[in-house]
Every structure is written in structure tokens, then in C-alpha cells.
């Protein structure tokens, strides 16, 4: 990424991390590139019997994005997920208030945006983030993650201008399997990183 940035292929760079797990990774990239860090808040849409099983995701006011393969496997339809989408949207708004504290979302028009997460299995949250950010008119939209399943990366290349991943295994069952220490990231860690790396208004 550093060689790429210095080559001039990336200009007016902003790093946008998916909280919470993507923020420590995004912070390291922002420090190394000496560019601002902010967040793009995305919420997973769970299934009726478990909010931890994600079959979709939402970002901003956009309609939800669904994992159609996952829906078929669980014999679910989009119509049945209305309450789960509503709950996810409430939590999305809460998280935006916590992390931004009233700050507006960054204006990315004409900017090179690097979207960062801690790793991708299905990639549904990254897909929602990329589609949401594309509407903001970025000059270039790059997805950067430490690890991503090969098929997931191929699918996301249709949404991003570039997908950069250190590891591209055949499949990622759990992102945590690729970390020696995969402790949950707290809201305070997110806020601390944003205070350090987000320019003062």
C-alpha cells in the first residue's frame, strides 16, 4: 500500500474502517500513510433465531444487501427479515452517534478511499460498505484486508476498483482463525483511534 500511495495512484486518501474490528487495522494503515482515519458504519442483518448469524448488511440509509446463497441455504426470504433489518438500522444509527458524536460522514467525492476490515469470510458487510461509499463519488475505491477468501475477493472486485489482501486462502471459515490474538475491540479503542487520527474540525 505504501509503494502504491507514493506512486501517485492514490490521491487525497481517506481510510475508512469498519468498526469495530477493522479500526485497529485501519489505524495502522492511516498512520503508515499519514492520512486521516474515519469509520464507515455497517450493521449485519441477522436471522430471526440468531442475530449472530448474518445473512445481510446495511450502511447509511441504503437498502439492505443480502447473501442470497445464505438465504437459500436457510430457506429464508427477504420478506421475513423486515424486523431484523429494522433492528439493525436502529443499532446502526446508535453506532454512528457513538463513533461520530455528531460529526457528519466524511465527504469522499474526488478522494481515494481505502476501506479496511480485519478480514472477510462472506464479505457481505464489505459489500454493503462499498456500495454505500460508491454513491459518494470517490475517485478510487480500494478494499484492503489482511485475509479474504478467494471467491469473496473475486466477487468484491466487481464493486471496488482494487482489492488488496495479504492472504487469499481458498476459504475463510472464521476470521479469528487467522489471528494469534483476536480479542473483541471495544468502543473506547475505536474512539481513541479516531481522536488520534481524525483531523479536528
From TrEMBL:
Residues 10-164 form the Phosphoribosyltransferase domain. The keyword DNA damage does not apply. InterPro entries: PRTase-like (IPR029057), PRTase_dom (IPR000836). Pfam families: Pribosyltran. Signal peptide: none annotated. Keywords: Glycosyltransferase, Transferase. CDD domains: PRTases_typeI (cd06223). GO terms for molecular function: glycosyltransferase activity. This is Phosphoribosyltransferase. It comes from Streptomyces fungicidicus.
